[in-house]
Amino acid sequence: MPTPRWSRVVLKLSGEALAGRAKSGIDPAVVDSIAQQVKEVAELGVQTAIVVGAGNIWRGRAGYTRGMDRATADYMGMLATVINALALQDGLEKHGVDTRVQTAIEMRSIAEPYIRRRAIRHLEKGRVVIFAGGTGNPFFSTDTAAALRAAEIEAGAILMGKQGTDGVYDSDPRTNPNARKYVELEYLDVLNQGLAVMDSTATSLCMDNRIPLVVFDLNVPGNIKRVVLGENIGTFVGGEGNGQSSSAGS
Q1: Looking at beta carbons, which pairs linking 112-116 to residues 24 or more positions away fall under 8 Å?
Q2: 11-23 per-position pLDDT tens digit
Q3: How far is Cα of residue 93 from the mean position of the Cα atoms in its chain?
Q4: Torsional sign, CA 165, 168, 173, 174
Q5: Of 20, 29, 186, 217, which is least packed with CB atoms within 10 Å of its CB?
Q6: Residue 168: what are its φ and ψ, rounded to 5°?
Q7: Architecture in CATH for domain 8-247
Q8: Is the dihedral angle over the CA atoms 85, 86, 91, 92 positive or is it negative?
Q9: Domain ranges in the chain?
Q10: How many C-alpha atoms does 122 have within 13 Å on its Cβ side?
Q11: Cα(17)–Cα(23) distance, rounded to whole angstroms?
């Protein structure tokens, strides 16, 4: 059996990843595909935690840019992440993967409250843990929640699965056919160049705690396993690199 690059990881999924081509809502076929990929990683013995967004249901930014109170809009987004987490839990358990959902905002009738030591214990027992509810505070993104949870549980890396994007580019490849893909970046490159990897708070948290990040295309079946096994796909950010930024074809 091949040796995984990391023994414990946090998989960051956008809400849109669960919607598939519909762009909104939850596509059961997509959830099933993601669950199958996560099962493959768990079978390697890799302790896996997941943080999921909620852009397929509600974006706080969409609310507060139209006059809604910022905190209220963000709390609505946090609640939407719980819906996505329960969908993922259902998909994983249909594949026989023991799963726990922990929420930053207590909802004891449907999920456990987030408790760091309990989360680590679940991971040690081979269970997949899904962290929902963001950080539990408004004004912070689920990217920041992923960075925070990764630091708390001492994860080896954050795996950021993107919807139809195979890495980080210097411009939008959908509108610029000459966009260059980065193979490797440092955290400061992401911050200084304003690259759309994760928000600045999350990037700074990863940099301070030396948590590497891999950005890859979630739509390709098997990619999560390939990343965990150390294949050079997507874009690697920080931590274990050679200190130099590089672009594909440069």
Answers
A1: 116/152, 116/153
A2: 999 999 999 888 7
A3: 20
A4: positive
A5: 29
A6: -105, 135
A7: 3-Layer(aba) Sandwich (3.40)
A8: positive
A9: 8-247
A10: 22
A11: 8
